[in-house]
Amino acid sequence: MFKSIFAMAACALVLTSAGAYAAQTQSPPILIKFAHVVADNTPKGQGALLFKRLVEERLGGKVKVEVYANSSLYGDANELQALRNNDVQLLAPSLAKFEKYTKQLQVFDLPFLFDDLNAVNRFQKRAKGRQLLRVMEDQDIVGLAYWHNGMKQLSANKALLMPGDAAGLRFRIQPSSVLEAQFKQLHATAQVLPFAEVFDALKNTKVQGAENPWSNIYSKQLHTVQPFITETNHGVLDYMLVSNSRFWYAIPHRIRSELEGIIDEVTYEVNRQAEAANQADRLRIAASGKSRLITLDEQQRAAWRQAMQPVWQQFEQEIGADVIKAAQTVNRKQRD
Predict the structure, then answer these.
(1) Would you say 177 and 184 are in contact if contact means Cβ atoms under 8 Å apart?
(2) Which residues does UniProt assign to the signal peptide (predicted)?
(3) What confidence score (pLDDT) does residue 264 get?
(4) Do residues 216 and 195 touch, judged by C-beta distance below 8 A?
């Protein structure tokens, strides 16, 4: 009897020691720092928080997510280098910010290339669009998803119905060779300015026009200082969710697959919110009476697209004729 009790006690001691050892040797959770430059209440900000919540619900103990909003960790100027250094693991910069690392993403800035947001969606989901997510891997940047902000509209202090109407005006742009060429082709001038300065620049006529999605126009009240907005849908202002490629591919396959599934869910919700916000803000701008909304007819839109052909040709070699053709094919399928 005493031998049995002794054996049981010894067994319990071994199991307790094994459990303690396992607890001590268990790997710490994978830390993902998700930094972005906008507020929590934007579609991008909400997407970051939803990603964090779903990861905690499904991968608690395996993965930990920290969200840093409003440039609280890194700003526009240094966030991509921080990602390449693996000081941050997730970002969602606008596509124009990647020009230093690849020219191919300039396809999204080509004016009047895509018919509308549905065409953009089709392109991004097909093979060529998916390939573009991987073109920066050799520079430690891997794309995981496209997140929408919206199609861009042209606002100005005069009505823009035909391409020639923009001649002589100065337009605010993000840093982009394509956008500079776009306005040069219209015999207008492009000026790079931070988004935070756009309202004052338009108000004091430092610039006379800008290009923005409806949600950007409304959130910054740009329509109150721009008497005309032409619904051009001439380009897309999108983000790319990116990670450090060395970090991402080092994550165990099973966990990485679960993270990719979560990203798919979050992407759907971000894009749904972005489109809803743009439609709602368009109605708010129209109801305000502050700005006249102009809708192009088919002939006018065709004239704008024709006027922009030289810009497509100028950047065809950098972007790739195959990439541009893939976008045009998507548009043709829609019109058939």
Answers:
(1) no
(2) 1-22
(3) 98
(4) yes
Residue 95 buriedness (CB in 10 A; 0-12 / 13-18 / 19+): buried
17 domain residue, yes or no: no
Q: How many whole angstroms separate alpha carbon 120 and alpha carbon 236?
A: 8
Phi–psi pair at 94, nearest 5 degrees: -70, 155
Q: What is the mean pLDDT of each run of 10 residues along the chain (336 residues)?
A: 49 47 65 92 92 96 95 89 97 92 95 94 96 97 97 97 98 93 97 90 97 92 97 96 98 98 98 95 96 96 96 96 94 56
Q: Encoding tokens for residue 155?
A: 């606002």
Number of domains in the chain: 1
Residues 209 and 139: their CA atoms lie apart, in Å, by 35
**All residues at 6 or more sequence positions from 272 whose CB lies less than 8 Å from its CB, including other chains:** none
Does the residue 13 lie in any domain? no
CATH of the domain at 155: 3.40.190.170
> What is the dihedral angle through the alpha carbons of 74, 79, 83, 84, rounded to the nearest 10 degrees?
-130
